[in-house]
Specification:
By secondary structure, the chain is mainly alpha-helical. The chain folds into 3 domains: about 110 residues, no CATH class; about 200 residues, no CATH class; about 60 residues. Helix content is about 55%, strand content about 5%. The strands form 3 sheets. A two-stranded antiparallel ribbon has the order 1-2. Strands 3-4 form a two-stranded parallel ribbon. Strands 5-6 form a two-stranded antiparallel ribbon. A hairpin with a 4-residue loop joins β1 and β2. The longest helix has 25 residues. The termini are far apart.
């Protein structure tokens, strides 16, 4: 009897007796709870969870699955007991938004997602609510577009990046006096996930901010002069018709095959002041984001930039030294390779010979300017 009464849920104690050809209910409540769709523990929930805190995790995950398929719900007394326990929870791959809502409702958010001390700036009072609103909006958006656009790994990191979007600009100072993103701390130190997961979420946050700045220019026919200035120097002039391709290409080479992930996240932020957290999940916002994503994705395709991160430079470091007539490398080689990358993005059909001619002409032009000065 004791074996069955310590099971996590009341209906766990149900078993089929082959001798009597019947289902036996040891606790006397399993069948009724199963019929009524209640997820409840046979013993006092407090005692059940104190015996093994990870049972909270099972209750939440099972609640998500069962509510989706059978309209089950967590018993209120179970929620109250679970709210006192810390849970090392990882993202559910079935109904993540609902799982995070449960974590928030159970007041477990800051126990599951431990924040570092002294974050800068201070975490908003309703940060947990904002995080849940963002992952809900992200999940709804992904459902409307279709899961197939992402791999399982991309979808998982998309959800983590969306969940922690409200703290994307929040950092803390670690023991080595380095500034570390709070989201990175939560993923690496609180959830104990891979360091590469924390790094990718940080990269997604950086990339989505850049997408927010770039989206208006890809949507219009205007030349983004303010961004164009950042691209050029005394050796490089970007043709106006190529500015968008260079800007987008540089960004895609940074985020690589996660660019669609970063783009979709950026639609939650664009335009920067168009919505509040309370309107984040409105149908109007959903339609607008889906339209933005579609337009930008088409623009990237039209610019022939998908897989641009696989493009190799026409000149490697050694060849660049020969063209520049340098005996040794150094920072100047790195700068010229960055210029070469921009030149290739602006001239996708350019040849090695044309590239070398451009470098020599740029050098000659610069030397004339220096001499006249």
């Amino acid at each position: 009897m004791l074996l069955f009464t310590v099971e996590v849920f009341s209906f766990d104690s149900l078993f089929y007796n082959i001798n009597t050809n019947s289902v036996e209910d040891v606790t006397g409540r399993g069948i009724q709870d199963l019929k009524s769709g209640r997820i409840v523990t046979p013993l006092p929930p407090k005692a059940t969870f104190l015996d093994d805190p990870l049972r909270v995790l099972r209750a939440i995950r099972f609640g998500i699955l069962a509510s989706a398929r059978f309209d089950f719900e967590l018993a209120e007394e179970l929620k109250e007991a679970a709210s006192d326990e810390e849970v090392d929870l990882m993202m559910s791959d079935k109904q993540p938004a609902k799982a995070m809502a449960y974590i928030h409702d159970l007041k477990l958010f800051y126990a599951v997602f431990t924040f570092p001390e002294n974050p800068q700036p201070a975490v908003p009072e309703q940060c947990d609510r904002y995080c849940v609103l963002h992952i809900n909006a992200a999940w709804t958006l992904l459902q409307s577009i279709g899961y197939s656009i992402f791999s399982d790994e991309q979808r998982r990191l998309y959800l983590y990046a969306s969940l922690f979007l409200p703290v994307r600009s929040t950092i803390y100072i670690d023991k080595k006096s380095k500034e570390v993103p709070v989201a990175s701390f939560i993923i690496r130190d609180s959830l104990k996930l891979k360091a590469s997961d924390a790094e990718m979420v940080t990269n997604l946050h950086v990339a989505c901010e850049k997408f927010v700045d770039l989206i208006p220019f890809l949507e219009s026919n205007e030349d983004p002069e303010d961004l164009k200035v950042k691209l050029e120097d005394e050796y490089l002039e970007i043709p106006p018709a190529s500015t968008k391709r260079v800007l987008a290409g540089l960004l895609l080479r940074q985020i690589k095959d996660f660019w669609r992930v970063a783009l979709l996240i950026s639609t939650l932020l664009h335009p920067k002041a168009s919505h509040t957290c309370d309107t984040l999940n409105s149908h109007t916002e959903l339609d607008r984001r889906r339209e933005i994503f579609g337009k930008f994705e088409s623009a990237i395709t039209q610019l022939d930039l998908d897989h641009v991160w696989k493009m190799k430079l026409l000149l490697d470091g050694k060849a660049m030294m020969e063209v520049l007539q340098l005996k040794s490398g150094g920072p100047s080689i790195g700068k010229w390779q960055q210029r070469l990358l921009k030149w290739q993005l602006a001239h996708p059909n350019g040849t090695t010979e044309e590239c070398i001619d451009w470098i020599k002409q740029s050098q000659a032009k610069r030397q004339k300017i220096d001499c006249s000065a």
